[in-house]
Design a protein that fits this description.
This protein is an alpha/beta fold and 697 residues long. 43% of the residues lie in helices and 17% in strands. It comes from Thauera phenylacetica B4P.
Length: 697
């Protein structure tokens, strides 16, 4: 695979960036990319056309040499061939070079004519950039001529810059634009070395049949492009290269119109006629009349052999600015396993990919799909037992789709320094993988970047990638030993969430009895909950005040007692005289009871109660596939709590979480006290020397 000459590309990015700086004062920072990215695309397309015209002129002259003396006729013929045969075209005679040299008074009209002269497929790209409106702003702010002069002769053709290199330029500029406008650059792209690692871990074979590759959040198309370019680079000879071109098709969706336009332009230049990339939100159903386009690759035949993606971290899909209502239309189908919290939709992307897996034929074992997806740490363990994230993990693991997780170094990405993880999933696991999940700790597999790019200070070199790939390939063998590779059964990530009530003990380790103020409202509903929880006699001492008189009322409440009856009888006895006076003139029983209830409810109360010191807690107990929960759960509680267990209740389903940091924890003993003291005194001596030097001055 082609390696990137980053110094060369950075110099070019810096040169392009200068044009963005010329917009300062006339455009807001978030508008810079609206000007620069489309003109780069236009110039790159123009470079392709100029090269095509040159080649076509040579072919025409080889057949009709007499046209060399008739340049006007030759130009007309080449233009006709361009419009009828080229993958895209421009019907005018303009170029950015010629436009920049023409009468400035005609510049706007001629430039608009040049834009409108492109074929429909290019105009569609410009429409998604909304570039005609941008041209109006450029003219209004007197910036059209300077921008065209900047790009009139910039060498951006595929013969000078490969698609891989141009992708780097796009994405470096996107990062800078994002920093200027305070947006998240990570929504746009993934470092190429990470994409290459994902592609190689997918182990896409040289195709002998149709092979479909998909990315539900394809951005500028980096994942898809690198996947196909990797297959082309690996091809042995022209025949295999032709197989890749013939059989491999790329498919994707992208929500950002700008990124979508760049991706479409890239595919157009490659003349990839079979690529299907759509503008829209791949997480919601497509409704042509909806507020935004949805998943346009959701048909019964939209199944893919290989899928890879870096969905945005922590994307919010709920709230007034989200699309929760639309996403929940898939709740009974695509997202039937569960839906994550609305402030992190990462697992919605994974479920979308899993829904597009090709089924495995039970008879032949053919078919199936493989997935590589990048996550931050949240999808590993967010969500408690029974909640959306845990239920999604349970669904994945119980179906045995998760194959491996690779823990990557931190500071690999441009907009964040956090650790990230590559999840590898497949529904056609070989026998040695079935029922198991591999974890690879590659956090130390990196070199420092010679120059930091935003938060990207580390990089994965070829040696690190090969280190990871070797362990993923060979680590399934029973005798393979490596501290950075661990194999687990899918059930090793399962746990019971058990609600337990136990009797706390006192200093003498005897079951404790507590007397304390009752801080909640003294109501029948609260008392019913206390009776159910303690399931034993409760003692109450109540200071009840009516006017100037305060009476202490003591009573017991057993589990089956009616609080209203017991408390009512106690009050009637304590305030017998007051109640007799209150109701002496009320003959009707219903009214007498009503007046008595109002009297009781009007008392000012200060309640102290005595009860067993019960504690309610949740215990997370590892699932034991070989045991019976009715046996190992009580044994765990008795061992771990070591208090009298009153009762426990298991959750109706297992929870699932994956904790790579825990599995690869390596104990490091504290440094000896003598060593720490020696270091302290050395620092003390150094500080004294510094003070003496300062004093000497």
């Amino acid at each position: 695979m082609l390696s990137l000459n980053k110094p060369k590309l950075d110099n070019l990015a810096n040169e392009i960036w200068k044009s963005a700086e010329r917009l300062r004062g006339k455009f807001k920072a978030y508008e810079y990319q609206n000007v620069i990215l489309p003109i780069i695309v236009i110039r790159r397309l123009e470079c392709v056309l100029i090269q095509w015209r040159k080649k076509m002129r040579e072919e025409v002259l080889a057949k009709r040499p007499e046209l060399e003396a008739k340049p006007i006729e030759l130009d007309r013929l080449v233009k006709k061939l361009e419009i009828t045969q080229a993958h895209f075209s421009n019907g005018t005679d303009h170029t950015l070079e010629s436009l920049a040299e023409e009468d400035p008074m005609l510049l706007e009209d001629n430039f608009r004519a040049y834009l409108n002269g492109f074929s429909r497929n290019v105009r569609d790209i410009l429409d998604h950039f909304n570039y005609h409106a941008t041209v109006t702003q450029l003219v209004k702010n007197n910036r059209l001529a300077p921008i065209l002069n900047q790009y009139r002769s910039l060498t951006l053709g595929p013969d000078q810059l490969s698609n891989l290199e141009m992708g780097y330029i796009y994405e470096e500029l996107l990062r800078r634009f994002s920093e200027q406008s305070g947006e998240e650059a990570g929504e746009h792209f993934t470092p190429r070395e990470v994409i290459r690692l994902m592609v190689e871990l997918l182990d896409i074979p040289t195709p002998t049949r149709h092979t479909a590759i998909y990315d539900p959040a394809c951005g500028t198309g980096g994942m898809l492009s690198v996947a196909k370019e990797h297959l082309l680079d690996r091809a042995q000879g022209d025949a295999e290269r032709q197989q890749v071109e013939s059989y491999v098709t790329l498919h994707g969706q992208e929500l950002s119109p700008t990124n979508y336009a760049i991706c479409r332009a890239d595919l157009l230049i490659k003349e990839d006629k079979e690529a299907r990339v759509f503008l829209g939100n791949s997480l919601i159903p497509h409704n042509p009349s909806g507020k935004e386009p949805g998943d346009q690759l959701a048909g019964p035949h939209d199944r893919f052999d290989f899928m890879l993606s870096n969905p945005p971290f922590g994307v919010t899909w709920g709230g007034k600015d989200g699309y929760e209502d639309e996403a929940r239309r898939y709740a009974a189908t695509r997202y039937r396993a569960g839906m994550p919290r609305t402030n992190d939709g990462a697992l919605l992307f994974l479920q979308t990919m899993l829904a597009k897996m090709k089924p495995v034929d039970a008879g032949s074992g053919q078919g199936g799909s493989r997935i590589a997806i990048i996550f931050n740490g949240s999808p590993l363990s967010n969500g408690d037992c029974g909640q959306g994230e845990s239920e999604i993990r349970r669904w994945i693991l119980e179906n045995d789709w998760l194959d491996a997780i690779v823990m990557l170094p931190d500071q690999l990405f441009y907009n964040t320094g956090i650790y990230t993880y590559v999840w590898l999933l497949r529904n056609e696991k070989p026998e040695s993988h079935r029922g198991r999940v591999m974890l690879i700790d590659a956090r130390q597999q990196f070199d420092k970047e010679p120059k930091a790019f935003g938060n990207k200070r580390n990089r994965i070199a070829d040696a690190h990638r090969q280190w990871i790939e070797t362990r993923y390939r060979d680590g399934w063998a029973e005798r393979f030993e490596d501290d950075d590779v661990k194999l687990y059964h899918t059930t090793d990530f399962a746990y019971h969430k058990v609600g337990v009530v136990f009797w706390q003990t006192d200093a003498e380790d005897r079951p404790a009895i507590v007397t304390e103020p009752y801080e909640k409202a003294f109501t029948a509903a609260n008392m019913a909950r206390e009776q159910a929880f303690y399931d034993s006699a409760l003692q109450f001492a109540v200071q009840a005040r009516r006017g100037d008189r305060t009476v202490e009322i003591r009573f017991s409440l057993n589990p089956d007692d009616s609080f209203a009856t017991v408390w009512g009888d106690a009050v009637r006895k304590a305030f017998a005289a007051e109640l007799a006076e209150l109701t002496k003139d009320i003959a009707e029983t219903r009214e007498r009871n009503k007046a008595t209830k109002a009297f009781i409810d009007g008392l000012a109360l200060q309640v102290t109660w005595t009860h067993r010191h019960y504690v309610a807690d949740d215990e997370y107990i590892p699932f034991d596939p070989a045991g019976e929960p009715a046996e190992y759960i009580p044994a765990f509680l008795e061992r771990e709590i070591a208090k009298p267990i009153i009762r426990w209740q298991d959750s109706p389903q297992l929870g699932y979480e994956i904790l790579p940091n825990k599995y690869f924890y390596r104990y490091q003993p504290p440094r000896p006290a003598s060593e720490l003291l020696a270091e302290f005194w050395a620092l003390e001596k150094e500080a004294e020397g510094m003070l003496q030097r300062v004093g000497g001055k």
